[in-house]
Amino acid sequence: MTSTAITQELAGTPDLLQRYETASAAAQAVVHAVMDARRFGHGEWFPEGFLAAIARCYLTGADRHNTDDDPSWFQAAVANLTGPGPASGPVLHRNLLGYRLDDFLDETGRIQRRFEFPPAEFWTVVAETEMRSDSKTQMADAAAERLARLAAHAGMPQALTSLARLGRRRSPEKKMALLRQAADLGDLEAFEWLVTLLEETGEKESAESVAREAIELGSWRATVSIAECRDFDFPDEAEQMIRDLPVEMRWDAMAALADFRDSVDDFEGAEQLAMTLAGCGHLDALLGLADDRQHRGDKEAARRLLARVPQPKTPEDTLRVALSHAWAGAHDAARELLAGLSGARYSDDQVAAIADAWPQLIRSLHDVLTALGERIAAHRLIEQTEQPRESMPSDGEDLPPDFAEEDEELATAYATLAGFHARRGEFEKAEPLAMAASELGNSTGLVALGQEVLQRGDRATAERLALCAINTPEWSPWSGSPTAGRTLAEARGDENLLVWGLEADGTTAKPW
Question: What is the span of the domain harbouring residue 54?
Fold first, then answer.
């Protein structure tokens, strides 16, 4: 017998294991619940109510039914666990704080159950139970990690990337191993995070090698991540990395670096890159900087940048530049662009000429007119697109190839008209239009209508419309309408909704 075995024998560990392995189903459920909760970050001591609730999740069939019929099931389950065995101490130690698992079994559980997933109900109990904030935070991290692992096992490499990002206690080496695995499985986002970690640990050559792999897969974002890391100390090197990219990637990457510089208040560096892009016919970066300046209230700076924009060469770019001029208060410059594009002298003729020549740009033209304050002309333009709604195809029908593209424009028109009628108090006209837009994935009409009825004191209708907006097929909290949740919170008079979100049935979620 080895010295380790002798030590274990003297400590009674064989007896502990035998008692655990031969315990009743209910007693094993208690032990497994403690083992798993400890693995996921819970403290040593478990209050009786919480332990009984999570242990019950591990029981199935007749054993589960017995817990419903016999309220004393938990006391019976732990009775043998809290007493000493023939050659060991208690499996569960008990005091005023609750129950604590024997140290040896605690370590055994971490090893033997490291690949086990607790029942889904386990996490519900954890979420609804009051406990120390540090325990709940660690268990929340563990829940997210386990869900990501399930997704990874199901063949989603993005889940491995999530694991690397979620694991706050995971070492950089382990994070890089997960990201390397995700990258090898084809997750392009993993390359971005991996090169950032490599840069932070000083492995610059490895970072560049990983970025080259991403380029071969068609992604320039990892290269931009490296450039962002080096831009503070070596801006010339950062720019050169972008210029060395294949031409089909270079301009988007340069725009991303310009946006990064602007976000860290390197305004001169951002404008320099944006001007380089504009000189090559790529105006979006410079226009984006100008729009950002005017959104911050510095319209003079916006107009200064817009004065450096080259003459646009396409109808799309012309309207985009005109919109930025209008937002910045340079209305004369915007109108000159409309006149040049249309070849007409008067405003109505300009609108008609542009709409006839480029019907796909009606929405862009509408935005320019609205920014110029010409709301009547903007409304009249959209009214021209209002046509009887064609019936939606059934689930079994095939969609024509251009259905999605055409309906996106139509949905925008419906939503715009819904907002127009809502602001005029014409709710009976507005709601069918908003619903039609919602069917096509645009919830802005519903939100606009909800806001208007809410201002008139009709909370019930506002709540109904906000829920419809939230349930719009393409809606999510991060994209689509940013005010549907706010409208719903105002209609219910419940700010907690914005913090805790919604349950599956649409009610406000409870804090956990």
Answer: 3-131
